[in-house]
Design goal:
Blueprint (H helix, E strand, L loop, with lengths): L16 H13 L10 H8 L8 H13 L6
Helix pairs in contact: 1-3, 2-3
C-alpha cells in the first residue's frame, strides 16, 4: 500500500516523476526484505511491460536518482 506521505516526501521530490513511479514498481517485486533482482532488462520487462519507449538506459538513470537520495542500494 502506498501511504499518503509518499506524495509529499521531500526526499522523493528531488527525483523525477518517472523515478518515483519506478520506485513504486520496485516495491511490487521486492521480497519481504526489500531485495530483488538487479537486472535492468528484467526490471523493464516486469515494471514497464507495455511501455516500449522505456529502455534499460532509463532504468539506470532512475536507479541513479534513487541511489542519490538513499532510497535504493545497489
Amino acid at each position: 500500500m502506498i501511504k499518503p506521505e509518499f506524495w509529499s516526501s521531500k526526499a522523493l521530490m528531488k527525483v523525477s516523476r518517472d523515478a518515483r513511479l519506478f520506485f513504486i514498481g520496485l516495491w511490487n517485486f521486492a521480497d519481504d526484505y526489500g531485495i530483488l533482482q538487479n537486472s535492468n532488462r528484467w526490471l523493464v520487462g516486469n515494471i514497464f511491460p507495455y511501455d516500449e519507449e522505456v529502455t534499460e538506459k532509463d532504468i539506470i538513470k532512475w536507479k541513479d536518482e534513487l541511489v542519490n537520495i538513499a532510497k535504493v542500494l545497489i
